[in-house]
Amino acid sequence: MTAPLVDIRNVSHRFGQLAVLKDVSLRIEPGSYTILLGPSGSGKTTLLSILGGFVTPSQGKVYIRGEDCTSVPPARRPTTTVFQDYALFPHMSVGGNVGFGLRMQGVDGATRAARAREALALVDLAAAFDKKPHQLSGGQRQRVALARALVIEPAVLLLDEPLGALDLKLRRQMQDELKAIQKRVGTAFIHVTHDQEEAMALADHCVVMNDGRIEDEGPPERVYARPSTRFAATFMGESTILSGTVAEAKGGTATVATPIGSVCVPGAAQAGAQIALAIRPEHLVLGANEGGVGLGMAKISDVVFQGSFKRVLATSTVDAALRFIAKAPASATVQTGDTVAISCQAGDMILLAN
Length: 354
Description:
By secondary structure, the protein is of the alpha+beta class. The protein has helices at 44-52, 94-98, 100-104, 109-122, 138-150, 168-185, 196-202, 220-225, 230-235; strands spanning 6-15, 18-28, 33-37, 59-64, 67-68, 79-82, 156-160, 188-193, 205-210, 213-218, 240-250, 253-258, 261-266, 274-279, 285-286, 293-305, 309-316, 323-329, 339-344, 350-353. It has two domains: 6-231, Rossmann fold; 238-353, CATH 2.40.50.140.
């Protein structure tokens, strides 16, 4: 097995009495696009700050390219950070901003200018070299910050919610551009966000964090389709959660007693265990579904048209605590107040520890 580019080993950190990271271990491979995903307070930004050298962990080690960088200051480690507010110098030209890191390294003016122009061309801003930051749009300033980070050729580029200040259309455009730039330069990107759609659009390695710990990690397709924990199932996209007790388990199938009846699902479990069944919205069927698992009747409380589909919320008529979240075709004739049968395929139910 090849050595990882970044190896975080048993890192914990406290701010006073508050534990913000709890024994976190993570390996980042060269050339990967890693997303640290989680709600506010999950520890993702603190972990990024530790990687960038702005915070020294209370415990644990951080290795980059096989070297112990735990206590190495930001300017001496092979990382650069792109902050949410861009942190551009308003009095400097765009070219001056991009070349600033090279200037701190003692690179001569002609070489600085040439490399700054190359970096700006990489982000499609070659014509902005002599402009000031205030003359650029938000998306352009974001790309300048990216060029400034890339020009010093870091081993790892750290991005702290870089798209958070942009509007929806520009954010999606920048997602495409970030992914394309990362593929071109081959640098490992580690990107913090709380936006699940952003994570799925960009990552080839998704790390879901909660309460200072890693809940799940892997390719976003796997984390979404087969999350490891209940938290991951509800944070990485939406899920209907059905709680129950395993009544019987044999032959790779578990029979689960739930408030809406007995359900048989594929998966390994122990009889008597308290578990949860997660069902993604696209796997729920409104109406009769021959061959599927019946989940009873439900009353529709809300229907929201979202372009290619309708997002439907419904409450079980048997268990008022059970709320279904479904994606119905845009052409579906469902409306608020309807009572419909709900079902899904057994193989689409994800068995999780409760």
